[in-house]
Amino acid sequence: MVLRARDVMTSRVVSVRPDTTIERARYLLTENRFSALPVVDDRYRLVGIVTTYDLLRADGSSRDAVEVGDVMTRDPLSLAPDATVPVIAHRLRHYGELRVMPIVQGGMLAGVVSRGDLLTPEPSFGPIGRLLSRTKERPRTAPKFWDGEVRAGATAADIMTPSVDVYDLTEDMPVAEAAALMRAHRFSAMPVLDADRRVRGILSEADLVPDTLSGRRTPPPSTVGAAMTTDVVCVRATCPVHDLAHTMVNNRLRTLPVVDADDRLAGIVSRGDVLRATAAVPTE
């Protein structure tokens, strides 16, 4: 059975309008731990998408951007509910920064599919199963390290998730186990460590979502070590928050491992951490 967008998408979507303030979008992204928000008009037609990357880039820009419409990607790529999972995976991999694919039906936003939704898609068991999968509420399990406390400060050490609170992976771990862990806790990337807790690589959702339409005939990797990205940018705990944002924007990184003087993992900083550290909850 071929899984389609309607089988795996999230239909209860948090969206914003082009005239929503950047502060409000930042709050929604950080509060819900999203990487992107669809932007719709007053008829719920998709007109754009705004990401954590867009907001970090806006914060470091000299432009006087105050609304989502000033920083969003206009006319984003979208697919129909009957698009197959292999097509979604192929589009997400080959169109740059995409982690979320909007699903549009009849010109209106019907849902979104993220890379996390593609890690271990649930079987739909025919028309009834597909109906249930579209209507059920998908639980949003908070990551182990997220306790609701806003970590604010001037350096990576102030805002990072400490290493003792971070799930880490080893190179010999099966990719299926890693994928299940990432999906269960809504991680977009996880560090891969050696026995001395030095960073060997980063495993992201993009590394785990297979692209069966790429034309490659090599079998998918079976272990984390074979799938992970080994070219990893790390930062020291003393790195200023401004420099963290600059590094993430310039290198299009979602996660930065923080290492100590012995190059052992001290913590992890995500785009959301950088936004959350400076975000003020907007008034309604």
Describe the structure.
With 284 residues, the protein is of the alpha+beta class. The C terminus is likely disordered. Helix 3 crosses helix 13. Helix content is 33%, strand content 18%.
A few lines on this structure:
The protein has 13 helices and eleven strands.
Helix content: 25-40%
Major sheet details: 4 strands, mixed
Strand order of the largest sheet: 6-11-10-9
Please state the CA-atom Rg, rounded to the nearest Å. 19 Å
Feature tags:
about 280 residues, alpha+beta, four-stranded mixed β-sheet
Ordered list of secondary-structure elements with their pairings:
Blueprint lengths: L4 H4 L13 H11 L3 E5 L5 E6 H8 L8 H4 L1 E2 L10 H10 L5 E6 L2 E7 H5 L6 H10 L20 H4 L1 E2 L12 H11 L3 E5 L5 E6 H4 L15 H4 L7 E2 L4 H11 L3 E5 L5 E6 H8 L6
Parallel strand pairs: 9-10
Antiparallel strand pairs: 1-2, 2-3, 4-5, 6-11, 7-8, 10-11
